[in-house]
Amino acid sequence: MPMGYLEGSDAISVQDLALMRSTGRQHVVLDVREARELEICRLDGALHIPMAEVQARVGELPASRPLVVMCHHGGRSRMIVGFLRRAGFDNAVNLEGGIDAWAREVDQSVRRY
């Protein structure tokens, strides 16, 4: 993984996230999908706050650790990363391709929808 891959970047690949998880690098995955989407599939250990609730619940997020925001394909999470960065979460990054890319490229046991 390139040095400083989170600094100055607003997105990471699913491969980067897989490496973070496998090496134990401190981070939080924020899943902004709806509850009905989590019934289909989820990423173990992710914090779930639906997109519509993030602004009201921003105090629940750790500002000191990298925050990887994900949704189904990356569109909603990209908007949330913009909001979080404006709110001072400089370590917030979008997971490119969302959980769908994770299911295709990292863990094929994750159900796609």
Automatic annotation (TrEMBL):
Domain Rhodanese: 23-111
A Gene Ontology molecular function term of the record: transferase activity
Name of the protein: Rhodanese-related sulfurtransferase
SUPFAM superfamilies linked to this entry: Rhodanese/Cell cycle control phosphatase
Protein keywords: Transferase
PROSITE patterns xrefs: RHODANESE_3 (PS50206)
Protein source organism: Roseiarcus fermentans
PANTHER family registered for this protein in UniProt: FAD-DEPENDENT OXIDOREDUCTASE, SULFURTRANSFERASE YTWF-RELATED
InterPro entries: GlpE_sulfurtransferase, Rhodanese-like_dom, Rhodanese-like_dom_sf
